[in-house]
Design a protein that fits this description.
Radius of gyration: 46 Å
Strand content: 5-15%
Order of helices and strands: HHHEEEEHHHHEEEHHHHHHH
Strand order of the largest sheet: 4-3-2-1-7
Distance between the termini: 139 Å
Largest sheet: 5 strands, antiparallel
Length: 428
């Protein structure tokens, strides 16, 4: 029984053990980074919000198109701003090289190298081709170098030398760490990234205000949407203008690595164009047709306190008489788009002109109208004309009579006072 239990225990716990010793971990478990955790987190958050909106979208009965377009554009713009802030795809380059794995070595490695420039860092990847590397097929590196300060890139390069990174990665990092004798690509990339970071955080603040205004006052949200588009386009234009005048090209043992604009740049450019065009169209529509842009996200939507209901009620009560009498001139149906826009933007509206014409003059008195009709004969006995004299109210006869108290009333008051005095004397 003891031998059977010992063999059973040995079968359960003797994996990767030799001669009764501890487990031998002879395999290198280090793997290269395959994804950016920060970017994936932001994408999951925005995708979750969008999926939740799509779930409730079939239940929307009013303002379906405007609500769908506004929510989609808002989430797309917010995700673009945050992903571009932390992304590594502003200026990229990749090539297939045949290079030494380490300096002063004759052994060549066939690999794919990629350089992905972000706003405050650069990612360098090196992956060997398994079919062409029998002995070194496990080469897979993904290194990130930050330049938050002016000297951080140089310190990161020294750390890479100390760790013994492959020779191609060190060669690329050296181009970004040098800052003298015309090799100032690292400083120029850092300045361009610093400008883009400031502009993108400004766009993020405007994006938050845009969402708030779309809920409270949609027409102001459209104006802020236009501002977000302008700032996004300013970001990409400024970044493109601050890139090195002398394009960066890296030579690696007969191969050349060229750079081009990456997906982060084009994503921000696309979001800026869509926001600008959409904001201009919505704002122009609101000027021509006021209170026409609406979504179900508004405060008090479809309630008695809805702004559309309040505006319609107040407008109907105020101009009900004018509409009934047809005194208010409407726009002719044949007016063009430009004429309608100019009439809306004009400072002198027909309503104001009507109000000025309707001012009352309190000092004006109209004389009674004299009739042109007369009796066919003269009145023989006409009454003499008697002119009525106007008097002041307190000097009129009725007022004076009311003030004069009859004599019997005065005598009654005198007798009453005498009786009160006699009563007091009797009490004493």
């Amino acid at each position: 029984m003891a031998q059977m239990s010992e063999s059973a225990m040995k079968g359960w716990f003797d994996a990767f053990r030799y001669d009764g010793g501890p487990t031998l971990y002879s395999f290198n478990n280090r793997t290269a980074v395959t994804g950016d955790v920060t970017i994936i987190t932001f994408l999951i958050i925005f995708c979750t919000l969008y999926v939740a909106f799509l779930i409730i979208y079939p239940g929307i009965r009013k303002e379906r198109f405007t609500t769908f377009f506004t929510v989609t554009l808002s989430l797309f713009t917010g995700a673009t701003i945050l992903v571009s802030l932390f992304g590594s795809g502003w200026h990229v380059g990749h090539a297939s090289i045949v290079s030494s794995y380490k300096a002063f070595s004759k052994e060549k490695v066939v690999a794919d190298i990629g350089v992905y420039v972000g706003l405050n860092h650069v990612n360098i990847t090196l992956q060997a081709t398994p079919a062409l590397n029998a002995s070194s097929s496990d080469i897979d590196f993904n290194e990130r170098f930050y330049w938050l300060t002016s000297d951080q890139m140089g310190d990161s390069f020294k750390d890479a030398l100390f760790k013994g990174l492959p020779y191609p990665i060190l060669t690329v990092a050296e181009y970004f760490s040098l800052g003298q004798e015309g090799l100032s690509w690292g400083g120029q990339y850092r300045a361009a990234g610093y400008y883009a970071i400031i502009m993108l955080w400004t766009c993020f603040a405007l994006w938050l205000l845009m969402n708030l205004m779309l809920i409270v006052v949609p027409r102001y949200g459209a104006v802020l949407m236009t501002a977000v588009g302008i700032f996004l386009l300013s970001t990409v234009c400024g970044y493109l203008g601050m890139l090195p005048d002398n394009p960066l090209t890296i030579h690696l043992e007969g191969r050349t690595l060229y750079f081009h604009l990456g997906w982060c740049f084009w994503l921000v450019f696309t979001a800026g164009c869509i926001c600008l065009v959409s904001g201009v169209i919505i704002t122009t529509t609101e000027i021509i047709f006021p209170n026409s842009f609406s979504t179900i996200l508004e405060v008090d939507y479809d309630t008695p306190y809805d702004r559309h209901i309040i505006i319609e009620d107040s407008h109907g009560r105020r101009f009900q008489k004018k509409r009934a009498s047809s005194t208010k001139l409407e726009d002719p149906p044949g007016l063009s788009f430009g004429s309608r826009l100019l009439r809306r933007l004009s400072s002198k509206t027909p309503e104001k002109m009507v109000e000025k014409r309707g001012a009352d003059n309190q000092a004006f008195e109209m004389e009674p109208r004299k009739s042109s009709w007369q009796y066919p004969f003269r009145q023989r006995h006409s009454l003499p004309e008697k002119k009525l004299s106007r008097t002041i109210s307190h000097d009129s006869l009725s007022t004076r009579l009311s003030r004069e108290v009859p004599s019997i009333h005065k005598e009654f008051n005198r007798l009453r006072n005498n009786s009160d005095k006699i009563h007091e004397v009797s009490m004493w």
